[in-house]
Give the backbone structure.
Amino acid sequence: MPYTAEISRSNPTCFVFLVDQSASMSDPIGGEVPTSKASVVSDAINRLLTELSVKCAKEEGVRDYFHVAVVGYGHNNVGSAFGGALAGRDLVPLSQIADNPARVEDRTKKIPDGAGGLVESTVRFPIWMDPVCNGGTPMRQALEHAHRLVDQWLSEHPACFPPIVLNLTDGEANDGDPTVPAAGIRSLTSADGAVLLFNLHVSDAGGSPVTFPDTDAGLPDNYARTLFTMSSLLPSHMRSYAAQEGFTVSDGTRGFVYNADITSVVQFLDIGTRATDLR
Amino acid sequence: MQPTYGSRIPGSVACHHLHKAGGQAEEYEDAYAVQPRVSAVEEIDIASLRVALSDGASESVLAGLWARSLVDHFVSVPPEALASGESFGREAVMVTRLWEATLGDYIARREADGRPIQWYEQPKLDRGAYATLLAISFCVPQGGDLADLRGEGRWSAAVIGDCCLFQVRDGALITAFPLAGSEDFGTSPDLLNSRNQDALLISERVAMSSGSLRQQDDIYLCTDAMAAWFLREVEHGGRPWETLRDLGTSDGLNFADFISEERASGHMRNDDATLIHVAVW
């Protein structure tokens, strides 16, 4: 059965994050306090890397269940988007990512005070990449770059849980049709199944946020519909976890999110017995 | 050794464990405790026996230490603690109170070692450690006498999660508790959390069972990967107890070799594996 391979230090898998850093990412989107799309995307990456590190943390450090690349594309080039000590590197073992954020910020967050109100609390927020927006959107080249990274990984880890490529973008590719290299990524396989390509679409086109849809019917524009089409179907166990988190899922549910949080995708991955409370 | 209920049940206990392949022995996060402490070869009085088995959830931190705290406590509780959900819940909450000191010691030790808690550990420490638990006690009801077959012994067990108890009598599996099918195992079993002080919730979730005990009975207590293997063998018409019964003896396989082979053949999930065999003579 596909998507059942153990994810472990002796059989790790990889994550490739593709981050749109084009000029259009400087446009602000939504909310009471408008934020640039680039900030939304860099926050998403920093949160994903945080969640992944925490998920794999044990007493002796973070276990290398995953190797992770963060690839930026914009200004007509494609390359590592890590800041700090990891700058310039492609796939990096997760323990090194956890131990080498570019910096750690203290951010305030409102949390329930237990009496129906909210209190401000300070949380540590590691930063691996800052918002960048510059030049064009070479998404096709970025997908081809991810293809090369994953292909190389698979040649070295042929039995791994299938790698995941997660593309975070406003969808406006300007170096050709991205659906062709996207199909190329999805056609790569390990012994455990096909590589998964997911997309987070950050857009100022309006409409309601959408998480893991099974149809493109409610999506606002062609960019969103194209990214939906490019996205892999969620494997059945991931659909189950999505359902547990309250999302409506079907056999057609895809790894696509429109203007919503995608951090929950980290919780779709099994690295052993889950730490869940009695209900 | 003084029998608790006025009559002896002669037998023996054998314990086996192996850490997950690809990891280190010190990363083993199951835990078990047997009271009184015995070696595999000596005759014991099963009527005074307490056994607890726990599986620390790999996704939490300090899971092995929490599992150890649970089993150490539950082998020392009176048998009545396994007789009702309420008393089990009270005992479980008692361990969480003791845990705060254990956690404080751990954090202080890390500081002293020059390895303070890192940003990626803190959220997990805040959530607490998680583990399953199976506890079992044995007795001979007042007036019973197993030795001459006029009476029977009894076992009583309580479980949160997917550690399993199997009882074999006259060459047949007569009890599988709390899970009875290999497909019943998943990655989200019920777990005791080191911060959960809701005794009522625990009492509602604990599964309890009891049964008779006769001469020549065998009871096997297993953590999940081993239990799923056991049930799958049974579902395919096998008699897995025939392999387990003699493990580690001159007639049987070496436990580590056996587990490694089953993992390599894909018949057993790669996870910490623990087996406790209680044999009535």
